[in-house]
Amino acid sequence: MFESLIGLVAIIALFVIISRQQSRIGLIERELGALRSLVLSGAAPPVAKPAERIAADAKADAAPMAAAAADIASPVVSEPVTQAPATETEAPAGEALPGPWSAGEAPKAAEPVEPIAAAKAPGKPDIETALGTRWAVWVGGIALALGGLFLIRYTIEAGIFGPGVRLTMAAVLGLVLVAGGEFIRRTGFKVPVQGVAGAYIPAILTAAGAFILFGTVYAAHGIYGFIGPALAFTLLGAIGVATIVAALVHGQALAGIGLVGSMATPALVSSQAPNPWALFVYLAIVLAATAAIARMRDWKFLIAAAFFGTGAWTIAYMTNAPGADLAVILFIDAVTLAVLALVWLGSRGGEEETAKKGFDWPSIVPGVFVAFSALGLSVDSTLVAAGDALPGALVIVALVATALYRPRAVPLLHAAGLVSVMIYLGIIPPTTIGSDLSQGNVGFDGLRVAAGNPLTLRIGIGLGLVFVGAGFWAARRFAAVAQIRAACWAAWGIAAPLVILLALWLTYGNLDRDFVYAAAAALLVVVFAGGGEWIARAEEPPLKGGMAVSFALGGAAIAGLLMLHMAFNSGWTTILLGAAAIVPAQATRWRSYPVLGWISVGAAIAVLGRVAFDPTIVGAEFLSKTPVFNWLLPGYGVPALAFGFAAWQLVRTTNGRPRLAMEAAAALFALLAVAMLVRHAMHGGVIDTGAMTLAEQAIYTLIAIGAGAILVAVDMRSPSSVLRYGSMAAGVVSVAFIVIRHFVVLNPLLTDESTGQIPVFNLLFLAYLLPAIAAGGLALYARDKRPKWYAQMLAVVAAVLALAYATLSVRRLFKGEFIGLWSGLGQLETYTYSALWLVIGVALLTAGVWLKSQVLRIASAALIAIAVLKVFLFDMSELEGVLRALSFIGLGAVLIGIGLFYQRLLTRAARENG
């Protein structure tokens, strides 16, 4: 295999030589073609400066392949002459060139060279560049590493040398490769041409040597036992750190190799009595050294990997080590945050400049791992017993402090906030963050939350104060220069205290009524509202009401909601919460913050959620059976009035979407108030049991029609899209009620429900005649105020309801209180229906002509057509004697009368037009 590899390298080298010669010939041909084009066009070729010619000649002599990689081409005469990107120049003698394995490392040329035409586009090197400068170097580095392994393997199989000699030879080979890489770098190695920076020969040699040295030390300890754990640990760590340091001159990839070796060293070296302090002091040194190197070169992936390795070792120690040492965990957390704040995120410009740079994404890694360790310190029973849960809180505070000290480390704030929320949600009974996964709950190594810890209350208060103070101070600090960062701080400044307060109340407070926690919530309302105003004064322009202010005021609203639940019972909470919608609407008179209107909308949503959960407002057992004057009236009426007033106030100030939402909420609660009072009265003071009757449904239908008329009237005085579409929605809903409930589901013909003993004012009057009058009146009122189809729909429904009332009244006249279909039909009753329908048809025709309503005239024609069909198809077979004759005589007389009526109408119209 080794011989085949050597042959492959020789073939590649031969191919490179041939390709280079062909490239040079092609270069000469293109230069001659470019000169010929310039001569023919009469343009003089650009003359390079003497210094540029000297630099270009030196470049061509020192690295001929670079000239081939920057081919000069100008095949089209009309194309403008462009400037090619400059290639790297030779560094001064004795200056160390950094490796090109990361952005921005390669030194720039002293002065750009201006060739005749544009060079090839970067990122598309020719085959000569690829083979000669990258593949050959990579294959060569792999060959060196494999050669060392094959040599050692050969000596083992042949038994030429003992283990000690073989390890010595391997170590010498590794050192020789490292020294060779350094020698080549120091003796004038030049950075490769553009596009081949990955083939940095000194770094490849050093990496191969580092691998061999790592393997040698590990074999001396793990395979042959020549050295003990302490010495092996020290040597491997020293090799890893030295490799990371060497990356300063060889590039980020070499630093990654050293970091992997350093982080793997503790796993490779085992001990009968492991010392956690030795492990984490070693990790701290590696982390600090890596951060210093990464900071110099701005290697983000390297520092993120270093934080990941340190955090992984910390979590592994906490979850697997029996009796984990609390001091060790706090030590490595402190070192991690110190390295992040003082080394990696060292002074990087002024406060305003730093704030505009966004966040530092490598900070996510230490934030996650340190926050996870804080969670373990707070919920692990052993660690909690060792420190009374206080160390976990201190780690959270350290996360917040670090994020406050270094603004770009804002991921630490999110980590601290999330872990605080998780900890305090976990103390709420019966929540068990640490319970076993088999029970369906997320846990920390199967350990239960220490909810009964006596310091939990005081720690929660302390953490809440930390988040409030730091959150609002930082939000004001960044309000003018970094709105998103300010919003993040303000969000956690209100979210964490609210969750902690809620968890402590649910765990330790009185859920029925607790004035102590209510006072704490009221204090948060004042602090959040005042903090929002304080932040708004620092905005640019002031009092703009950005995201940070919106979070603060929204938090004040949520705290107010908690206060009402903690201090009052269900009924008063609903009423006061509805009335509270007025407060932010009134505040718009002095401040134009966009969030104020939406807070009113949030109050309406909260009230709607409460009544959906408990429609009785105070509970079914506490609801009085007195009609109208019970908890339903203020429970639905006060919010309706408050929402209406808030909408009126918002019209005068902001007049945006919140105003429309409040108008809709006011209309909805007004309807709900009437509907719930009706149901309460119809069911003897119980609103959540019993099937709906036709009488109750008729009242709901009348309410819907009346609401549509009221909304139309209000809209005419104060135009609003909510009122416009709400009025039409009320009409459509009422029509749906009529078609589905009145005509089908609750129709007394189908249910045989009692229609009442009173002749006129009975169920039919309430369920059919009154809705017919209401729908007709609304159709007439909305005729010129709403779309044509809307008024026509209501007119048709009104006509059908009137027909239904008349028909069912005839049925009741013949059958009495119960008019079910299964009681049969008499001949006189059948004839009466025909006569009645003809009379109603004529009445509809007259009304249609008088009101100039085509819909009513068409309805009249349809009803008369039905009467004609009934006479010819039904009456002819069912009626006998004089009734059959009268049926046809009456039908004929009516039809002739209608014909004469229409002829007179047409004659009159012709005279008027003539």
From TrEMBL:
This is DUF2339 domain-containing protein. It comes from Mesorhizobium huakuii. Pfam families: DUF2339. The chain crosses the membrane at residues 135-152, 164-184, 196-219, 231-257, 277-294, 301-320, 326-346, 358-377, 383-405, 412-435, 455-475, 487-509, 515-536, 548-566, 572-588, 595-613, 628-648, 660-678, 698-715, 722-740, 760-782, 789-810, 830-851, 858-876, 882-902. Keywords: Membrane, Transmembrane, Transmembrane helix. It comes from the Bacteria. InterPro entries: DUF2339_TM, UCP035905_mem.
